[in-house]
Amino acid sequence: MQFGKYLEEKQRAEWREYYVDYKCLKDLIKAAARQQEEAGVTEYSPRTTSLTVQRAMDSRDSAEEEFFRKLEAEVEKVGNFTAKIVEGLRERLFQLQAQAKSTLSPEEKDHLLEEAQRIGDSFLDLEKFVNLNYMAAHKILKKHDKNMPSSPCRQFYISHLHNQPWVQGNYSDLLMSLSNVYSELRGDLPAKAEEFEDQYRYSTTKYWVRMSDISAVKHHILQHLPVYQYSDSEYTGDSQLVNSVYLDNSSLEVYHGRLDERPTALTVRISWQGPQEPTEVSIERKSQKQTGKGYEEMQDRMTLPENVVVGYLEGEVGVEVAKEFWQSMGFTSDEVENNVELFTEVQKVIDSKQLKPMVRTQYMRTLFQIPFEPTVRIKLDTNICMIKENPEDGPSCTISGRWYRDPSVPIQRTEITRFPHAVLELNLALESGETTPEWVQELVESGMLTEIDRFSKHIHGTATLFPDAVQALPYWVDDESVRASMLSSAPEQSVEVAPTARDQLTSQQSKPRKGQSNEIDPLTEPLLGRDTSGLERSGIAYRRRYAKRMGLLEWWFSKPPMAIRPKIPGVVQQKIEPKTYFANERTFLSWLHMALTMGSISAAMLGFSATGSSKAQASHDVGLVALILLPVALVICGYALLVYYWRSEAIRNKDGLYYDDRRGPLALTLVVISALSFIFLVNLLDFIEQLTEGPPENASSSPQEWFKSTIIYQVLYRIDTE
Fold first, then answer.
1. What pLDDT score does 43 carry?
2. Which residue has the higher pLDDT, 291 or 450?
3. Is residue 544 part of a domain?
4. What is the pLDDT of residue 656?
């Protein structure tokens, strides 16, 4: 689809006159190209002039001049309209805040909540309006340079466009005000950060979020959780700048340990908040602790003054200096004791592993949480970038006597990488048997989130900025949506990255036919190989279509809500090891072995019952037992084959699913128990009947002789003789 048609389809009817006039601009480009073709490209232009010689002037403006004049007018039109809408939203929010603070009845609260919803929807519509016009400007400038290669302007004008208020303007204060309104109406205003102590254990899942979906995700969350307030002196907008410096050694031991998920993996980082140089920092240690359920990630932190960090890393600052600082901060004796232990342990690790500052991560973090209701906590990190802490052309931090990069040293292209997506971290603290809130599941299944198992900004930054030192890469680097940002940080002399099989397949499938245009590629850039149409489809509608296709299999192998992987586009295609296939085959053979054993016993018993034994009742009972066990064996065979096929397809397609079956083994166990219970009941009734009737008249009065006539003796004797 050409972008002109796409723009017409996506326009909001009541705002149609305020969109960029793409068709008119395209016609001006065609006219300018014809003029240039007719007049030819002027190769000579005098570099001197005379103030006493008048040159001949052309009273007509060229089509190219008309194009730039029209483009500037369109950009100004979009900016004025955006400012007008934003001002209207601010006025509506101001009135809504005043009404929300008054005493309201339940009906009035519902009415105000609906108004808040409408304001949020209007803001999202405005963002779509801005994005469409911004993309239209990009497309028309690209078309200009394509049709008039002798006078390119795209690079220059894009820089001019970036400085427009409607492009670079930060309107997060609108969402912040909207958050306060929702909090007032729900009655769950957040407490200050210092009043909250994080004492809860969370299950964590990380997702990627497209830049175009960030505001929609925020709006969905704001309707249920408030923005968590930091201290007023440092807080601006709905997010806070976070800096984290990660320590590692020359062999990147910490990086490889985390990537391989080694039990001994340990991470040390130094963090602070805000754009200013830090006065206090947080030393954090992440490690793994073995529990009854495997390895659990543990995180400990302590606070230190910035001026002792260098000495601490070098082992020159003792714990007494830190103790004085903690006591002056009002820490309790238990807190000081715990910090002393952490201080000593981390310092030993730094010395033994020779850890130095290596990579810094910077991002704007928005935290959503009700402090007194810890069930759901959400972190949304935007504007993520990773920086080399030691300049390539300058002295390292150690030589400079610093623990973080000198801000005055320019950052080279190969020393920084900017992550193209936002990262959402979902933390759930659910009691046993408690289900995930419905609104959380709606968000996960909306198609706006892409689950990324074990994603780490530290790992991504190290893999990108130290390509020659890393021995392994995380699985997500193969995704097309991040490769461009990674390659932009690659050294020029590096070997060209060979295209992957997916790259070649995509290039063949996306190659436009003759006469067709592929102008909206940026709109369909995939996240981890998912179908981008999933971003526009409802999660519920998709599940219905998927359920029709899968039927009973989908229901049987489905998980309870938030197990935590959604069965929608947006799950990660993880790397599948060969041992996964072998494990599936071993499981299949184990089930077959059980079924074969049970089937062999059943077949032998059928053969015994068909030999025409002198004891007709015993033969009848043996045949009944065999007829009960043999179908059970066949059911096990069918189940094993079905599960083997389902798992093989899921592994081959790299679906982000759980491969275990929580219902099948339980169902088979119930079937086997039922069959054995029935067999036991039949034999018990037969035994009771024989005890009641006593020995037959023609049988010996000896109990031993009577026992030989029972079914138990007949079966055992038959098996022994065979």
1. 53
2. 450
3. yes
4. 56
What pLDDT, on a 0 to 100 scale, did the predictor assign at position 708?
52
> For residues 152 and 145, is the Cβ–Cβ distance under 8 A?
yes
Domain that holds residue 658: 578-721
Q: Do 424 and 528 reside in the same domain of the chain?
A: yes
Contact at 8 Å (CB) between 190 and 117? Answer: no
Same domain, 151 and 16: yes
Structural tokens at position 292? 């009854």
pTM: 0.67
Contact 424, 207 (CB under 8 A): yes
* pLDDT tens readout for residues 191-249: 444 444 455 567 889 999 999 899 999 999 999 998 887 655 444 567 889 999 999 99
**Contact, 534 vs 568, CB < 8 A?**
yes
Going by C-alpha positions, the residue among 694, 714, 687 that lies closest to residue 612 is 714
Total domains, the chain: 4
Does 418 have pLDDT greater than 60? yes
Task: State the DSSP H helix or E strand holding residue 708, giving kind and residue range, or none if neither.
Answer: none
> For residues 602 and 595, what is the distance between their CA atoms, to the nearest angstrom?
10
**For the residues of 456-500, what is the DSSP string, one character each?**
-HHHHHHHHH-TTT-S---GGGGSHHHHHHHHTTS-TTSPPPPPP
E strand or H helix at 134, and its extent? helix 106-147
Task: Kindly state the tokens that stand for 243.
Answer: 């800096």
CA angle 565, 566, 571 (to 5 degrees): 80
Each residue's pLDDT tens digit, 311-325: 999 988 889 999 999
What is the CATH classification number for the domain harbouring 449? 3.20.100
Q: How far is CA 130 from the centre of its chain?
A: 26
Positive or negative, the CA dihedral 408, 414, 420, 424 is negative
Pick the closest to residue 222 from 83, 91, 376, 372 (CA basis): 376
- Is residue 621 situated within a structural domain? yes
Instruction: Count Cβ atoms below 10 Å from residue 678 Cβ, excluding itself.
Output: 13
Write down the residue that tokens 């000579």 correspond to: 44
What average pLDDT is seen over the chain? Answer: 78
Place of tokens 């659990």: 296
Determine the Cα–Cα distance for residues 267 and 261; give it in Å rounded to an integer. Answer: 12
* DSSP three-state, residue 385: strand
Domain stops at, among 322, 353, 384? 353
Which segments within 583-704 are labelled E, that is strand? none
CA 512 to chain CA centroid, Å, is 31
Q: Which residue has the tokens 């704007």?
A: 364
363 and 418 in a single domain? The answer is yes
Q: Is there a single domain that holds both residue 344 and residue 365?
A: no
- Asked if pLDDT for residue 455 goes beyond 90, the answer is yes
Instruction: Kindly state whether residue 590 falls inside one of the protein's structural domains.
Output: yes
Q: Among 353, 372, 396, which residue terminates a domain?
A: 353
Helices 154-162 and 106-147, packing angle to 10 deg: 160
pLDDT in the model for residue 76: 94
Verify that 375 and 405 share a domain, yes or no: yes
CB of 389 within 8 A of CB of 462?
Answer: no
Residues 392, 464 share a domain = yes
In a domain, 508, yes or no: no
What pLDDT, on the 0 to 100 scale, is given for residue 667? 84
Cβ(270)–Cβ(309) below 8 Å = yes
Query: 96-133 burial, b for 16+ CB within 10 Å, e for fewer?
Result: bbebbeeeeeeeebeebbebbeebbeebbebbbbbebb
Share above pLDDT 90 across residues of the chain, in percent, rounded to a whole number = 32
Q: Do 244 and 276 belong to one domain?
A: no
pLDDT digit string (tens) for 364-406? 999 998 876 778 899 999 999 999 999 888 788 888 888 999 8
For residues 331 and 456, state if they share a domain.
no
pLDDT at 158 over 60: yes
